[in-house]
Amino acid sequence: MKTTLLVPVLNEIEGMKKIMPLVKREWVDQVIILDGNSTDGTIEYARSQGYTVVIQKKPGLRKGYEEAWKHITGDIVITFSPDGNSIPELIPPLIEKMKEGYDMVIVSRYAKGAKSYDDDIITGFGNWMFTSLINLVFAAHYTDAMVIYRAYKKDLMARLELDKDSSFDFEEKLFRTKISWEPLLSMRAAKRRLKIGEIPGDEPARLGGQRKLKIFQWGAAFLTEVIKERFTP
Ligand SMILES: Nc1nc2c(ncn2[C@@H]2O[C@H](COP(=O)(O)OP(=O)(O)OP(=O)(O)O)[C@@H](O)[C@H]2O)c(=O)[nH]1
Ligand SMILES: [Mg+2]
Predict the structure, then answer these.
(1) Pocket lining: 126 vs ligand 1, CB cutoff 6 Å
(2) Looking at the whole model, is its pTM more than 0.90?
(3) pLDDT tens digit string along 11-22?
């Protein structure tokens, strides 16, 4: 079972310099830095450390993931945010949990024993609301359906058709924003009754740089997505 750590970055130089040295190279078989056209030296830093860097052509995290997929050699992908939000030491236990036979394991900020130090009242409520909604609509049992930090089988991308343009284009145009595919992945994995696990993992606060999250546009886009996904066979 080969593993690939996929690290999305957009102007994340501070976090990269503090966090990536804590990621031991022997933990995974491949590391890919997926860059969304950073201008703050992130790309140069990543290359100087010997990492494989994929610079995406189309904007947005979802298009980035799509473009990164062909470079992934692992059977399992771990998406990891190097802005301080993902704790590096949880990579080995996350992989261990995947080995128990799960299709996807989430590092939950809201599982018993974990806490988000990055949330404010709005993001905390939003994450709780969307996770509850996904559980209700798709009869799932997530404590965190939204977080980036998770591991899943590489082939879920094709099996769950995460790359089909129609999945998100409408919402993105309507709300003039770019959204990532984690919520859709959570919904479709639940719908197909895949084997989903969670481990608790704190979310420390962002280290530096700027938040890219657009709370209200994303909220509206996700809500539309849940409704649409509910009525798609
Ligand atoms: N390649 C790529 N990376 C991105 C893009 N947008 C955000 N990222 C990176 O993806 C990671 C996760 O971003 P998020 O956690 O969703 O958003 P955030 O800006 O970190 O928001 P907070 O963590 O809540 O402050 C960060 O390392 C970002 O730099 C993008 O369009 N392309
Ligand atoms: Mg973040």
Answers:
(1) no
(2) yes
(3) 999 999 999 999
- 85: Cβ below 6 Å to ligand 1? yes
Residue 197's contacts (CB-CB under 8 Å, 6 or more residues apart) are 97, 98, 100, 102, 104, 105, 106
Strand order in the sheet with 104-108: 52-55, 30-35, 3-9, 76-79, 150-153, 104-108, 196-200
CATH number at residue 172: 3.90.550.10
pLDDT tens column, 48-105 = 999 999 999 999 999 999 999 999 999 999 999 999 999 999 999 999 999 999 999 9
Tell me the CA–centroid distance for residue 74 and ligand 2, in Å. 24
Number of domains comprising the chain: 1
